[in-house]
Amino acid sequence: MAFKIDITTLRQIYEKLKECYEVISPVYDNGVIQYRENPSFDAIPFGKTQIEYAGTYFVSDTEKNYISYVRPSNTLKNFLRPPQEVLYKVYKKDEKIYFESTHVKRPMAFFDVRKCDLKALSILDDVFINKNNYPDDYYKALRENIFIVAVNCSEVSNVCFCSSMNVDFNNDYMADIVLTELKDGFLLEVKTEKGKRLLEGLVLQEAKEDDIKEKNQVLTQTYTKIKKSINKENLKEDLYKKIDHPYWENIGIRCFGCSSCTQVCPTCFCFDIVERNSLDGSYSERVRVYDSCFNPTFATVHKFNLRDKISFRYRHWLLHKMAYWQDQFGDVGCVGCGRCITWCPAKIDIEVETNNVRDIL
Amino acid sequence: MKPYDLTEGKILKVYRENYNTVTVNVEVNLNNPKPGQFVMFYAIGRGEAPITIADYRDGFMVNTIRIVRDVTGYFDRVREGDVIHLRGPYGNLWPTNKAFGKDIIVVSGGLGLAATRWLLEEVIKQKHRFKNVISLYGAKSYDDILYREKIGEWEKEIDFRTILNIKNEMWKGKVGLITDLVKEIEIDKDSVVFMCGPDPMVNAVIEILKSKDIKKENIYVSLERHMKCAVGTCGHCMIGPYFVCKDGPVFNYKDIEYFYTKKGV
């Protein structure tokens, strides 16, 4: 099912979403376009565009079209696997210990999710549910009640390289409805029953064949605009072979080990579980927080730090994304969204570094 | 099954092995644990730590814990009758069937003996299935020796040799490194080796095993890494593409050699 709608109808759809879900959509705030909970339709940064380079980010205005910005700086991970998540509340009473498991269930609707983030979501699903012998019930509880409005990109940023990282433009992944901006309006495609139910009661005009054609044109155009790419052929074998190469030291000198890349990455899943205690010792919370392989003590056993140099940590991160992930979950762990490139204060570019390592003989 | 739910266990006995190690007997119902697997011990307000299962029979588990910091420090102070919380079992097991009909060599260093204790008991029970059973144990000093009573029993059953790093008047046996013991044993080329100890020991022993023409695929190593979740999602225990918690802790050396021998992987 496909319809052609205008901006007024899009607003109606947004309002309908708000009736049943906690809507999460991009806003322009503090100079950054990012996902926020419960904003209004007017807060969507229509007509803005991001200028992104390694270590550089700013937002400017453009008059090209409505959805001229690209993916927000934060990711769905921030909502489905929050930075802080209480797993258990533990009470101590009369020398006995009681556990209370705290599953948060909130119906969330993500408005404006790009293909890279959808692919990242399917990767996280594999990590936490599908390819795990112990499916993560906390992630599952949040994951099960979401509605996704996907958007096909018509613009790209300088750091995007999703086209070479297994992101399929023609696949709509788990989106409920998909939007594509056309010259005069939007193409609205309905992909699930949930999506159909949402649109009930709205008067919509069926899309014509020309509209579908125009959408495919948009996709092709976007595809050709992407300049960066990584050759995936023999990527794993090649990186494994070069695991000892001195070039990693070169990166280690430049990298600050600040963990910024892992925090903005849509697929980085590593976590720590910390205990938050009351002073009298009668109450404790087991809190799951983001951790990063760039954390100096991440791989410490007793007093031995197995990755005691930044070059080791960077190598571990890059190899995990590009190579280990293939062995673990059968796919690369990078979706080419380029966030880690933009937000790296040392201007280290994962695409450039991977290609550099591959080009070394 | 929920990944982080804890079960209750009751401490039946606390035995002080030495100045920094305790052995606890815990009454707990686990789902069919096997030698080589581990459990996560929880201490309120302190967190969790992975502890190997040193023995398990009909709801009675033995664990040996080295007192290092927060979580293990808690088990320094547990008393008989205390209720503790844990989850598990996790990980894979020692593949004893791979050694049927062959020489089996169990090498353990320091606290590594805890990870091979149950294995040894099982091997002794099925002694007739192996050609020869040799166990080599290296400890730092006389005070570090674990399971003194058990070692006495094992010495009667199998070829169990102990070596100490540091000389002591009380010690009448050998003094040196575990590698000295590995050098002196005479074994077949198709022997199967099960090993647990600190990484430098594992590397040194493997060098000697190589010189004895033992095949890499016949060497099994139990590894220790930092762990938070034990179910393959927290990322701390990764060594190359392997999660020690779910793909290990027992690895065939041939599989991990490439990553294990690289520094910082």
Domain module count of chain B = 2
> Which fold does the CATH topology of the largest domain in chain B refer to?
Rossmann fold
Enumerate how many helices of chain B there are, as a single number.
Answer: 7
Q: Reading side by side through the largest sheet of chain A, how are the strands ordered?
A: 3-2-8-9-10-11-1-12
Helix content, binned percent of chain A? 25-40%
Q: Separation of termini of chain B?
A: 31 Å
Series of secondary-structure elements of chain A, N-terminal to C-terminal: EHEEEEHEEEHHEEEHEHHHHEEEEHHH
Gyration radius over CA of chain A: 22 Å
Tell me, rounded to a whole number, the average pLDDT of chain A. Answer: 92
Any idea what the shape of chain A is? globular
Summarize the main sheet of chain B. Answer: 7 strands, antiparallel
Biggest sheet descriptor of chain A: 8 strands, mixed
What's the helical proportion of residues of chain B? 10-25%
Whole-angstrom Rg of chain B: 18 Å
Q: Name the strands of the widest sheet of chain B in spatial order.
A: 4-3-7-1-2-6-5
The CATH homologous superfamily name of the largest domain in chain B equals: Nucleotide-binding domain of ferredoxin-NADP reductase (FNR) module
Proportion of residues in extended strands of chain A: 25-35%
Oligomer: heterodimer
